[in-house]
Amino acid sequence: MKEAIDKGKIPKHIAVIMDGNGRWAQKKGAMRIFGHRNAIAAVRDAIEGSAELGVKYITLYAFSTENWSRPKEEVDALMEILVQAITDEVPTMMKNNIRLSTIGDTDSLPPACREHLRMGKEETKGNTGMTVVLALSYSGRWEISQAVRKIVNKVVSGEIAEADVSQEMIASCLNTAGIPDPELLIRTSGEIRISNFMLWQLAYTELYFTEVLWPDFRKKHLHEAILAFQKRERRFGKTGAQIKPSF
């Protein structure tokens, strides 16, 4: 399947909603946290598979602002897994020239998580290959509201005029400033929604939904998603005739 992929049409940025950990564990008669622990292999395959194909950015929806409402023991365990995962994976990221970045309200994370993220980002900041973006304590509406506050403050202070507000300015005030919008969104577990994820950035993103539960996601599933992406016609409001090359 990998050989069938057109290397000239690889999405520059892939976003992933990693869904189904709890259901995967329940199917095995285990606690939900068992699914979260077994999701690390899927994360590793998604990152490695993307890097092998030349993807420049992969954003992983790791923890939403809504996830804080889950049972405390599950949230605490998720934070522990995050710390361990960062510790374990940074050496591999260094070896493979991968940079670590984050979006979201990371100040709301526990101190140990913030410190490990800081160290991971600092250690990998000079890497020039693919960038792995972890969306942590993140939601699209939260991000947009933060951007609106920044712009309002600039208008009130006189730094800019109301007429200066543009789509480009809004994008520059988002957490993803400087990162291209995703061309492909993958969501696992059979759910068909975007769940408050990258609401601004997904305006023209191709959406791919799979029944595979996240802990079972492997490179072959990534390849399936990219092949499906490559079969689609991306028109951006134009007609099919307009985007077809003329000879």
UniProtKB/TrEMBL annotation:
CDD domains: Cis_IPPS. Mg(2+) binds at D19, E206. It comes from the Bacteria. The keyword Metal-binding applies. Its EC number is 2.5.1.-. Binds 2 magnesium ions per subunit. The active site is at D19, N67 (proton acceptor). Substrate binds at residues 20-24, 32, 36, 64-66, 68, 70, 187, 193-195. It is an enzyme of class 2 (transferase). Gene3D superfamilies: Decaprenyl diphosphate synthase-like. Keywords: Magnesium, Metal-binding, Transferase. Coiled coil: none annotated. Its cofactor is Mg(2+). InterPro entries: UPP_synth-like, UPP_synth-like_CS, UPP_synth-like_sf. GO terms for molecular function: transferase activity. PANTHER family: DEHYDRODOLICHYL DIPHOSPHATE SYNTHASE 2, DEHYDRODOLICHYL DIPHOSPHATE SYNTHASE FAMILY MEMBER. Homodimer. Catalyzes the condensation of isopentenyl diphosphate (IPP) with allylic pyrophosphates generating different type of terpenoids. Belongs to the UPP synthase family. This is Isoprenyl transferase.
